[in-house]
């Protein structure tokens, strides 16, 4: 870790620090292998999704998404796999500053930032290239969905904070690090959560977009032979030893359109099959989103009717007079 | 809640506005109308005035705490205070002895540190063993747009948090030392004293999900709850590997032995304007736990950090200030709060301590 100081923040010791090394994982490779998580779901089964809207009252729209990981083991301090926790906040639409050039449609700005404690290795405070890359992918997924012509000369800010992100692979495999498989899951989560936040903000869209991921994995080889290739939906990279290819989509289920497609790895011949798998996963996310949005709408409507009956009952809650 | 100023009763009302528009157009008269209406209308002093958010001036928001939800942290907490929501994660990493700049060594661990009054603040601050940081640009409020450097507010906040952490001497340096006693096999001389091979560094990152006033209170209490939740793995110097290794058995991990339980309470002073010159009653209100709207119209603010853990919860329940130790008082702007008012505020903070103490205790 470089000893560059940032005078606007509290700095770590200039000599740098290192993450703790656990003795058993160094001395006993067998033990380390015993910690490897495995996929217990079926290949077509998605992880549970928790979604909530309206978590930030000062923002025009906001949402929180959580995909829980494997439960924490009671016999070791090393977490086996990560979960996914993302918050999205929408600021705007608001008028662009006077100095900005004329824009006939809504200007969309997306910012994606990992929290310092989001991954197994600590993240920095300043956005790195991975985070900027995710921001660009997210923007392209959302730009086609929002009807921007209805807000000329305005801008909207979509701020995504990743409290916890999926990992690129199992922590014990050094090959998994930096491969970027986890980013596909993070992107798909970002698409779903920002879509829910946009709907919460009441910004006009052509349809609700949702994210989904599918991957082509090689089954663990037995008796020396190479394992067969299997297509899995919503892969958790740390549960698979050998991922061949993966694909994330932003999918409009109502119109059967794809706004964002990100494929990594060697897709073999059946790329269509992989993309179709990802759209199936996206559809699963959409059903959750629809339910949550309907629920929040119902709650809002209920509060509204209660308030209006209140106002009829007495003058409380009514207007405040102000002498001119 | 119809707030009618006395002037408006004489003349027919010229303008009426819905509440949010009144609040946005003229925030100061809006809050003053709220605070003065109930006191003036009903000539009964027993009824306290209400603020725009429905609370009485001395009412705090009730806290919500949830700990241990983050996977990659040694300790974590989510604290909710009305519409203010904060996530705090504590992560421990190892600072090796050879990486300590200047090779400074501090008081040896010889005189074993069961001593309560060991002064380790210098050790903690010089080695930078506590690294608190805050992030406000998470879309938590329209004022903090990401992409910019930390604002003045963020820098002030993080400095105040660090100063409070150090001055209250919450964390013990002895908890963060990783000591090593060389095995003196063969030699029959008296065993060598243990030497500090490494330190644990605590990265304390606080993220604001949503801000609605009292940012300092929420952030500090999130840090407090996260530190109480923190489990540090057992670490030792391994002679074979010549490195510091840890034990991944949760049973051998230990909690931090924190000193006391300092709880901050923020107050804002609202100064009413006496435009007609017919001042009835008081024109200043000291508001507990202000929200963002109130903070925007109040110039003077007071933050009191008290610790009643020595006296126990019984003292704080009565609202008495005996046994409450004032750890810190910060006051800025304005001239309203004097010595008498400050006494009252310390009393209110002591009461507040009991609420937090109860909420934090439920988590363990």
TrEMBL record, chain A:
One of its GO terms (molecular function) is RNA binding. GO terms for cellular component: cytoplasmic exosome (RNase complex); nuclear exosome (RNase complex); nucleolus. InterPro entries: ExoRNase_PH_dom1 (IPR001247), PNPase/RNase_PH_dom_sf (IPR027408), Ribosomal_Su5_D2-typ_SF (IPR020568), RNase_PH (IPR050080). It is found in: Cytoplasm; Nucleus. One of its GO terms (biological process) is U4 snRNA 3'-end processing. Pfam families: RNase_PH. Residues 45-203 form the Exoribonuclease phosphorolytic domain. SUPFAM superfamilies: Ribosomal protein S5 domain 2-like. Keywords: Cytoplasm, Exosome, Nucleus, RNA-binding, rRNA processing. Residues 1-44 are annotated as: Disordered. Belongs to the RNase PH family. This is Exoribonuclease family protein. It comes from Aaosphaeria arxii CBS 175.79.
UniProtKB/TrEMBL annotation, chain B:
Residues 38-66, 101-124 are annotated as: Disordered. It comes from the Eukaryota. One of its GO terms (biological process) is TRAMP-dependent tRNA surveillance pathway. Residues 109-123 have a biased composition (Acidic residues). Keywords: Cytoplasm, Exosome, Nucleus, Ribonucleoprotein, Ribosomal protein, RNA-binding, rRNA processing. GO terms for molecular function: mRNA 3'-UTR AU-rich region binding. GO terms for cellular component: cytoplasmic exosome (RNase complex); nuclear exosome (RNase complex); nucleolus; ribosome. Pfam families: RNase_PH. Residues 38-47 have a biased composition (Polar residues). It is found in: Cytoplasm; Nucleus, Nucleolus. Residues 59-233 form the Exoribonuclease phosphorolytic domain. PANTHER family: EXOSOME COMPLEX COMPONENT RRP43 (PTHR11097:SF9), EXOSOME COMPLEX EXONUCLEASE RIBOSOMAL RNA PROCESSING PROTEIN (PTHR11097). Belongs to the RNase PH family. This is Ribosomal RNA-processing protein 43. It comes from Aaosphaeria arxii CBS 175.79.
């Amino acid at each position: 870790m470089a000893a560059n100081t940032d005078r606007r923040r509290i700095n770590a010791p200039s000599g740098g620090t290192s993450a703790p090394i656990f003795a058993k994982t160094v001395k006993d490779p067998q033990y380390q292998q015993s910690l490897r998580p495995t996929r217990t779901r079926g290949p077509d089964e998605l992880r549970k999704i928790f979604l909530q809207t309206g978590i930030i009252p000062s923002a025009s729209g906001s949402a929180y998404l959580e995909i829980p990981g494997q439960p924490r083991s009671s016999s070791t301090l090393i977490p086996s796999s990560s979960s996914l926790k993302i918050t999205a906040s929408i600021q705007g639409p608001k008028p662009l500053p006077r100095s900005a050039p004329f824009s006939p449609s809504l200007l969309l700005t997306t910012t994606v930032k990992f929290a310092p404690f989001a991954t197994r290795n600590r993240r920095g405070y300043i956005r790195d290239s991975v985070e900027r890359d995710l921001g660009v992918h997210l923007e392209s997924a959302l730009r086609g969905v929002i009807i921007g012509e209805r807000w000329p000369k305005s801008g909207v800010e979509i701020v995504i904070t990743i409290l916890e992100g999926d990992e690129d692979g199992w922590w014990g495999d050094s090959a998994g690090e930096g491969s970027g498989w986890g980013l596909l899951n993070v992107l798909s989560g970002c698409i779903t959560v920002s879509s829910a936040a946009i709907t919460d903000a009441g910004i006009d869209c052509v349809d609700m977009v949702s994210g989904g991921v599918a991957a082509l994995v090689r089954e663990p080889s037995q008796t020396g032979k190479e394992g067969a290739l299997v297509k899995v939906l919503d892969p958790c990279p740390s549960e698979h030893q050998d991922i061949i290819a993966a694909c994330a989509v932003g999918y409009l289920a109502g119109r059967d359109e794809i706004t964002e497609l990100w494929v990594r790895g060697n897709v073999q011949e059946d790329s269509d099959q992989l993309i179709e798998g990802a759209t199936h996963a996206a559809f699963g996310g959409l059903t959750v989103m629809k339910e949550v949005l309907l629920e929040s709408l119902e709650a809002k409507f209920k509060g509204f009717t209660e308030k209006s009956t209140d106002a009829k009952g007495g003058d409380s809650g009514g207007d405040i007079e102000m002498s001119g | 809640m119809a707030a009618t100023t006395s002037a408006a009763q004489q003349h027919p009302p010229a303008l009426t506005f819905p509440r949010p528009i009144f609040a946005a157009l003229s925030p100061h008269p809006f809050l003053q109308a709220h605070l003065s209406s109930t006191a003036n209308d009903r000539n009964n002093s027993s009824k306290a005035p209400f603020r725009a958010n429905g609370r009485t001036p001395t009412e705090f928001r009730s806290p919500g705490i949830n700990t241990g939800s983050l996977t990659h942290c040694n300790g974590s907490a989510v604290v909710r205070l009305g519409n203010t929501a904060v996530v705090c994660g504590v992560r421990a990493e190892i600072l090796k002895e050879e990486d300590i700049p200047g090779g400074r060594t501090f008081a040896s661990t010889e005189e074993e540190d069961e001593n309560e009054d060991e002064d380790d603040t210098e050790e903690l601050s010089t080695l930078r063993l506590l690294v608190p940081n805050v992030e406000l640009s998470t879309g938590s409020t329209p004022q903090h747009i990401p992409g910019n450097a930390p604002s003045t507010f963020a820098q002030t906040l993080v400095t105040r948090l660090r100063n409070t952490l150090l001055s209250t001497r919450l964390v013990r340096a002895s908890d963060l030392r990783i000591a090593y006693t060389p095995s003196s096999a063969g030699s029959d001389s008296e065993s060598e004293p243990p030497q500090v091979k490494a330190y644990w560094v605590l990265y304390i990152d606080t993220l604001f999900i949503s801000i609605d006033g009292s940012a300092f209170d929420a952030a500090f209490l999130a840090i407090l709850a996260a530190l109480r939740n923190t489990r540090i793995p057992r670490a030792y110097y391994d002679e074979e590997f010549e490195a510091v290794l840890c034990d991944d058995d949760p049973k051998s991990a230990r909690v931090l032995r924190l000193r006391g339980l300092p709880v901050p309470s923020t107050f804002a002073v609202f100064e009413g304007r006496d435009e007609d010159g017919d001042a009835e009653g008081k024109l200043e209100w000291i508001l507990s736990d202000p929200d963002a709207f109130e903070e925007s119209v109040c110039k003077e603010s007071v933050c009191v950090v008290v610790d009643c853990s020595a006296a126990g919860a019984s003292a704080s329940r009565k609202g008495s200030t005996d046994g409450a130790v004032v750890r810190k008082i910060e006051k800025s702007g304005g001239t309203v709060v004097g010595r008498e008012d400050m006494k009252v505020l310390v009393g209110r903070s002591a009461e507040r301590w009991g609420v937090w103490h109860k909420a934090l205790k439920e988590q363990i």
